[in-house]
TrEMBL record:
Name of the protein this chain belongs to: NCS2 family permease
Topology of the protein relative to the lipid bilayer: Multi-pass membrane protein
The keyword Secreted is assigned to this record: no
Gene that encodes the chain: azgA
Keywords of this entry: Cell membrane, Membrane, Transmembrane, Transmembrane helix, Transport
Single GO cellular component term: plasma membrane
Length: 436
């Protein structure tokens, strides 16, 4: 125990083995839905769903463990939502591209991603972003994750006239979310240790008690073979030989680049680990992140990236890489205990995401709202992330407006060359997204 504590610097980060374990378990439970959602989404492209379940678990486990051991950050990763939908519905079904070729595009994008990391481009971007923008990113992720929770918990639903509206309170699934939310709020305010995780357990029990969550029919299942999809990305690199496919490659690259970079900034900010507006061990964290994408593509899944649900574990007290290592271990264990995970529905995890959103929104207090040139881009970032359902899109809104507003305020000397580069990159980014 002592050697583990020294390796992860538990005392210096004011945490403990028990806290890191609970944080890892909380993060895993909060993001375990990806084990079922990712195979469902990618499976529509014709890929084997059983193999995808295993690829999802193994790619997540690899990236989490590397993040924990190499970078010592409590940040978990897995195949990301959004890009898996782009992979299936835009590339495979829309463009009529074979899933093997789409995997090859992810593989090529991951190599470019690693090169950008090796040459410290991502690290330079993180260091160049002003502190106010960093706080806005963290708060925006909080609002985004709360929106995901409200949606998953069915407290809000889509509306043809107003886009979103209040959910149907006569739906018993909604009451699982409401019950879990009330319990979690009470425990959080009463400062009960592990309040968020306890709230999820109580919500699951409540869901089973009212007959809305079925009891697992088994506890152990076999591990599906990877063979139908393993290595296909490498075998089909030669298929990346058209302008259309290179647009696909750069779309995977751009969205993953800014999604994961924005998420890392927000989570490190939430954990209070930023030092002098810089992210310590940024190179190690980015290397873990990019290598996970490469390994994931070989295993047979869409891009792997940092998950905003890591904020749930950070809220519980996770501060070191031991949290991420535990998440990785739980992903490995999940390959045989998948039936148990079925009780942690989106309604059960929704209260945790909503509360975490509240905690992360606290960062808005650090933004200089009286300076309009700062307030406008920060507001667009914070609001843009949930409204566009994309971290990278919300980030783009703010980083395009930032140099414009600073010029108007005659503070152009404060605009660093990197911020101008980001301005033009995001303009190209939105153009590429519209071309896809």
């Amino acid at each position: 125990m002592n050697s583990i504590g020294k390796f992860f610097h538990l005392n210096e980060n004011h945490t403990s083995f028990k806290t890191e374990f609970l944080a890892g378990l909380t993060t895993f439970v909060s993001m375990s839905y990806i084990l079922f959602v990712n195979p469902a989404v990618l499976g529509a492209s014709g890929m084997n769903k059983g193999a995808l379940f295993t690829a999802t678990a193994l790619s997540a486990a690899f990236t989490c463990i590397v993040m924990g051991l190499v970078a010592n950050y409590p940040i978990a990763s897995a195949p990301t939502l959004g890009l898996n939908a782009f992979f299936t519905y835009t590339v495979c079904l829309g463009m009529h591209v074979k899933w093997q070729t789409a995997l090859a595009a992810v593989f090529v994008a991951s190599i470019l991603f690693i090169l950008l990391t090796v040459f410290k481009v991502r690290e330079m971007i993180i260091d160049a972003i002003p502190s106010d923008i960093k706080y806005a990113i963290s708060a925006g992720i909080g609002l985004f994750i709360a929106f995901i929770g409200l949606q998953g918990g069915k407290l809000i639903s889509k509306s043809d006239s107003t886009l979103v509206t209040v959910g149907a309170l006569n739906n018993p699934l909604v009451w699982i979310t409401i019950f879990g939310l009330v319990v979690t709020i009470f425990l959080m305010i009463a400062r009960v240790p592990g309040a968020i995780f306890i709230g999820m357990i109580v919500a699951a029990i409540f869901g089973i008690a009212i007959g809305q969550i079925p009891m697992p029919k088994a506890f152990i299942s076999g591990v599906p073979s990877l063979s139908p999809i393993f290595g296909q990305a490498v075998f089909h690199i030669s298929d990346i030989n058209t302008v259309q496919m290179w647009i696909v490659v750069f779309t995977f690259l751009l969205v993953t680049f800014f999604d994961t970079t924005g998420t890392l900034i927000g989570l490190v900010q939430q954990a209070g680990l930023m030092k002098d507006n810089k992210m310590p061990r940024a190179g190690e964290a980015l290397a873990a992140d990019s290598s996970g994408m490469l390994v994931g593509s070989v295993l047979g899944t869409s891009p792997v990236g940092a998950f905003v649900e890591s904020s749930a574990g950070i809220a519980v007290g996770g501060r070191t890489g031991l949290t991420a290592v535990w998440v990785g271990i739980f992903f490995l264990i999940s390959t045989i205990f998948s039936p148990i995970l079925s009780v942690f529905t989106t309604q059960v995890t929704a209260p945790a995401l909503i509360i975490v959103g509240v905690l992360m929104a606290e960062n808005l207090a650090h933004v200089h709202w009286t300076d309009l040139e700062i307030a406008i881009p920060c507001f667009l970032i914070a609001l843009g992330m949930p409204l566009t359902y994309s971290i990278s899109d919300g980030l783009g809104w703010g980083l395009i407006i930032y140099p414009v507003s600073m010029l108007a305020a005659k503070r152009f000397k404060e605009i660093t060359p990197m911020m101008w580069i980001l301005f033009f990159v995001f303009v190209i980014y939105f153009v590429v997204l519209n071309v896809k």
